[in-house]
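Retry 2 of 3 after timeout on previous attempt. Resubmitting structure tokens to design endpoint.
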């Protein structure tokens, strides 16, 4: 010991005795050139000992002025081996004017830090601080040493007390790093092994393997910012460390929007605070296990999930997915309640879309998310996006069994729990050899062993070192190691990790953040204030009673009492126009009603509901719906012109112009989190085409929100929307909206009393050609004396009388038949017809003449070049058919019309009793009974994906026995070689079982039964069938399709179909 050290030692020892006499808890140990060690017996004494530390500093300053000393404090009872280090510079050294270090040493440091996060390996130690201080004077000159510069910036973020272990001298550090050799780059196989180790399941490993050979894998892990993160979060943290070490580009999604959708676990008022809290906690956890967060990207969900592109895809996806599939996908993740909210059904779809919008190759999560991952694999390709890979971690059981959950206090250990609380929870947990898969052992397996491996430590009990969990478990079952010993070891390890997080969150700003994110009590977020409409109506020449009467005429239901109140202010009418079929003559009835609204002093908004029309069972294709809205609005303007209605107080909007905006979408998500599926289902059961789709549940929400965002106080629609208006009255106030006064207009019935052969048979188009108009009215159902269902009378009531306004309706008859009849209103006409005093033929002839007059000016306007262009964009003509013989001269050449290909729905599927690779399916193809078909798809399509799947069936094969089961058809699929991939063909959305699938240009009748007597006959017939680069099914480059669209596949391009 040097004279300086001896002097210091004796002096410090004296101070130690003085301190010890007043507090029996301290023991002074030793002084070295680098540090002074003091031993305390409890954590409390450590924090109350700064007087002693101050004395040490003072003595160091006087006795060893040129020495740099650090006070190292060891707490004997708090941890068994870890050092709590409180760095205190005793006397700052003079700044180095120049650091003498060779270029070779600098390169050695950079090479080392390329492969390791810290000097001692996986966590920050005093050595990191010593080296960073040494390099500080020259760090600005080391920009070309990118790894050293990155490491130095990262070390500056640490507080002094956060460094662990003992400090090496700078010479020792440089000597060690100088000898270190650069770790060789990992091969693609090694990358893959590191990425996939310790996972419960990997889906798409082949895709990952192909990527890592070419470039870094892009992967994301998402966490909903709900309850406080707990120690089970160390499981994903250790995998994130693996991903970073493997060179992956890792994104952490702070899923704030998902958190809100998950049954409102996190109120909107707290979400921002909780998102910041999660980010701080995740960074602290990664630092605790020695992982740099520099190359980690954090993304807040709302920053892109409220964007228009994302919202459009959300709408498109909702129109593809059934309510059943959405519930099934979220069953393990979304909180299940008796009356589920709509938001829980949106959750899986949004998580699937995140893969595309974060531009990643793979998603990482717990095995409890497997159904969501399969949902993403199924539906992303249908949106035109690439299928991603999925990596799943095991789920860590809680200390009381089951899943470790933030909402179950006794099942989890909070990251900010005190050391005593951690010890108490772990000691109280069951760890019995009779149940070796208990919560404590699971935690050892999935958290303790991986963390120890990262820190270069071993699991050691009573002198026995366990290098693997399996060996520990074996000895535990044999009672060679006790549960209490295991729990004691886990307590020490866990507290050593959590101490870093506790220190971090002892900072004032993070303390405050924790209080804001998780207050002791949560005040329910107040509903936004409804719009206060204090405007008074402008002066109007009509009195209020006359205005109410004018607004009330020609409605299918009496107006509500609130109409009078609204008219006394500034009435703003919203007319929502559905676009699910081409414009029909009922628009005349509604436009005539607009004339009444305007005359009563209202302002009118005409809304072409393009997005809602797509959500209504995909009746309108997404690619054309905006163009259809444009065409509709121009036709409505032409109709108003034909009826001499001024448009000064009328605005025309499309739903897509505001329903993709941030404010609207946020309101929509809020409403889905407050409205149950049952409420919305009741509102739309008789309104939309397919109430089983997820999009159907959004339909009433959006109609209600349209009232709020278009600032309407009167909502006008056809009578079928009555239950949607009732829904809006109840639900709109939940998001700060004031429900409108609903007005219900006419709803035209079908022209026929039988099923229509084609959809346009049922209605008269707004620009119907005269020849078709005459044909339709002639064939319309008009039974003599029948006034209960009479489409011709409905035309008179709902179209002609509103168009006439004050003129009389005249039925032209010959003198022999009683002469002309004139009617001022509909009621006398209806009564006369019911008494069979007006013949249907006379009524039809008069209706035809009136309809000609009504339609002619509108049709003329529609024939302008501008309108024709809009029409062709909205309803593009079908591709020209390829003219050609259906059969060649020889009569045996194959043409695709010979195939009877039908849309089928798999209503039942099971494994073949005698063949493991075969499914036995019951498929509905529109026949009285489902067909039995055997398919070899077991290896390629999971059984749960086959159930209820829409497929393409080759239905005119001769039935054949397949291992004892007679198969009456074939499911057509695209296939690829090595590795073998098979994907069933997909009918377009909206297809019904039994629809025939045709090849473009070949529409002849199918053969009753295909001639497949020759063994290779079917293979030759199928030779021209394959998918193209756009994933469309083709035969010799001619596409396959139904009236609803084209046949496609999920992902196989240029693949044969068989």
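Retry 2 succeeded. Sequence:
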């Amino acid at each position: 010991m040097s004279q300086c050290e001896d002097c210091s030692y004796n002096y410090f020892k004296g101070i130690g005795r003085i301190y010890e006499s007043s507090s029996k808890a301290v023991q002074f140990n030793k002084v070295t050139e680098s540090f002074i060690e003091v031993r305390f017996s409890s954590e409390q004494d450590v924090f109350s000992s700064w007087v002693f530390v101050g004395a040490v500093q003072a003595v160091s300053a006087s006795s060893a002025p040129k020495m740099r000393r650090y006070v190292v404090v060891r707490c004997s009872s708090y941890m068994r081996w870890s050092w709590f280090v409180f760095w205190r510079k005793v006397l700052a050294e003079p700044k180095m004017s120049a650091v003498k270090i060779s270029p070779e040493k600098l390169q050695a440091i950079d090479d080392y830090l390329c492969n390791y996060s810290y000097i001692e390996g996986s966590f920050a130690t005093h050595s990191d601080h010593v080296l960073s201080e040494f390099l500080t004077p020259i760090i600005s000159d080391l920009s070309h040493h990118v790894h050293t510069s990155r490491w130095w910036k990262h070390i500056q973020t640490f507080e002094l007390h956060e460094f662990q272990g003992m400090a090496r001298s700078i010479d020792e550090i440089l000597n060690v790093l100088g000898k270190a050799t650069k770790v060789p780059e990992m091969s693609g196989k090694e990358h893959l092994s590191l990425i996939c180790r310790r996972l419960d399941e990997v889906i798409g490993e082949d895709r990952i393997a192909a990527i890592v050979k070419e470039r870094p894998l892009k992967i994301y892990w998402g966490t909903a910012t709900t309850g406080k993160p707990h120690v089970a979060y160390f499981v994903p943290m250790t995998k994130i460390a693996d991903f970073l070490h493997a060179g992956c580009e890792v994104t952490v999604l702070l899923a704030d929007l998902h958190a809100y959708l998950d049954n409102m676990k996190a109120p909107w008022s707290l979400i921002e605070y909780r998102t910041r809290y999660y980010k701080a906690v995740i960074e602290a956890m990664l630092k605790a296990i020695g992982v740099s967060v520099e190359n980690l990207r954090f993304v807040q969900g709302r920053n892109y999930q409220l964007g228009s592109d994302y919202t459009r895809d959300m709408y498109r996806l909702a129109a593809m997915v059934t309510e059943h599939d959405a519930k099934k996908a979220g069953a393990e993740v979304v909180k299940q309640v008796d009356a589920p909210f709509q938001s829980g059904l949106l959750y899986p779809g949004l998580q699937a879309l995140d893969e595309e919008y974060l531009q990643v190759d793979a998603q990482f999560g717990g095995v409890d998310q497997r159904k969501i991952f399969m949902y993403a694999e199924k539906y992303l390709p249908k949106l035109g996006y690439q299928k991603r890979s999925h990596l799943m971690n095991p789920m860590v059981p809680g200390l009381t069994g089951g899943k470790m959950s933030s909402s179950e206090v006794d099942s989890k250990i909070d990251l900010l729990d005190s050391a005593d609380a951690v010890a108490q929870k772990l000691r109280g947990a069951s760890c019995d050899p009779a149940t070796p898969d208990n919560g404590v052992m699971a935690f050892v397996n999935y958290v303790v062993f991986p963390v120890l491996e990262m820190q270069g430590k071993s699991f050691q009990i009573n002198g026995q070192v366990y290098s693997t969990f399996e060996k520990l478990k074996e000895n535990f079952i044999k009672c060679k190691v006790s549960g209490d010993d295991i729990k004691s070891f886990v307590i020490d390890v866990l507290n050593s990790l959590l101490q870093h997080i506790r220190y971090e969150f002892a900072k004032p700003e993070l303390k405050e953040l924790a209080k804001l994110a998780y207050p002791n009590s949560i005040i329910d977020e107040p509903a936004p204030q409804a719009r206060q409409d204090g405007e008074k109506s402008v002066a109007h020449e009509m009195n209020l009673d006359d205005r109410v009467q004018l607004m009330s005429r020609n409605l299918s239901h009496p107006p509500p009492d609130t109409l009078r109140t609204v008219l006394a202010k500034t009435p703003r009418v919203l007319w929502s126009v559905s676009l699910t079929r081409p414009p029909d003559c009922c628009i005349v009835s509604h436009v005539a009603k607009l004339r009444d609204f305007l005359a009563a002093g209202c302002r009118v908004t005409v809304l072409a509901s393009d997005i809602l029309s797509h959500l209504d069972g995909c009746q309108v294709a997404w690619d054309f719906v905006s163009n259809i809205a444009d065409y509709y609005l121009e036709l409505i303007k032409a109709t108003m012109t034909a009826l001499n209605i001024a448009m000064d107080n009328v605005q025309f909007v499309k739903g897509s112009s505001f329903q993709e905006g941030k404010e609207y979408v946020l309101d929509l998500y809020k409403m889905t989190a407050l409205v149950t599926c049952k409420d919305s289902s009741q509102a739309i059961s008789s309104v939309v085409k397919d109430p089983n789709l997820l999009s159907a549940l959004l339909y009433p929400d959006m109609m209600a929100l349209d009232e709020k965002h278009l600032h309407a106080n009167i909502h006008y629609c056809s009578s079928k929307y009555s239950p949607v208006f009732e829904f809006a009255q109840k639900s709109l106030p939940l998001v700060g909206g004031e429900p409108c006064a609903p007005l219900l207009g006419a709803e035209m019935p079908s022209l026929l009393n039988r099923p229509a052969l084609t959809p346009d048979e049922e209605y008269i188009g707004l620009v119907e050609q005269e020849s078709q108009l005459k044909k339709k009215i002639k064939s319309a159902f008009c039974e003599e004396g029948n006034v209960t269902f009479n489409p011709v009378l409905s035309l008179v009531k709902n179209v002609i009388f509103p168009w006439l306004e004050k003129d009389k309706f005249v039925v032209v008859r010959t003198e022999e038949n009683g002469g002309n009849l004139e009617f001022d209103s509909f009621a006398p006409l209806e009564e006369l017809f019911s008494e069979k005093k007006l013949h249907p033929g006379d009524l039809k002839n008069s209706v035809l003449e009136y309809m000609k007059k009504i339609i002619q000016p509108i049709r003329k306007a529609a024939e302008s070049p501008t309108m024709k262009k809009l029409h062709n964009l909205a309803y593009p003509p079908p591709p020209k058919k390829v003219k050609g013989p259906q059969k060649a001269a020889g009569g045996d050449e194959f043409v695709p019309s010979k195939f009877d290909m039908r849309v089928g729905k798999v209503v039942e599927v099971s494994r073949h009793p005698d063949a493991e690779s075969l499914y036995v399916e019951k498929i509905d193809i529109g026949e009285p009974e489902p067909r039995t078909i055997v398919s070899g798809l077991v290896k390629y399509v999971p059984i749960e994906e086959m159930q209820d799947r829409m497929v393409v069936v080759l239905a005119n094969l001769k039935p054949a026995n397949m291992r004892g089961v007679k198969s009456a058809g074939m499911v057509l699929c695209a296939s690829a070689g090595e590795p073998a991939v098979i994907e069933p063909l997909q009918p377009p959305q909206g297809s019904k079982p039994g629809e025939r699938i045709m090849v473009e240009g070949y529409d002849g009748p199918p053969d009753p039964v295909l001639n497949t007597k020759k063994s290779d006959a079917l293979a030759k017939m199928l030779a021209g069938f394959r998918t193209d680069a756009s994933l469309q099914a083709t035969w010799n480059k001619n596409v396959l399709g139904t009236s609803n669209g084209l046949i496609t596949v999920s992902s196989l391009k240029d693949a044969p179909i068989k």
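Attempt log closed. Confidence is low (pLDDT under 50) at residues 1-37, 39-98, 532-539, 884-891.
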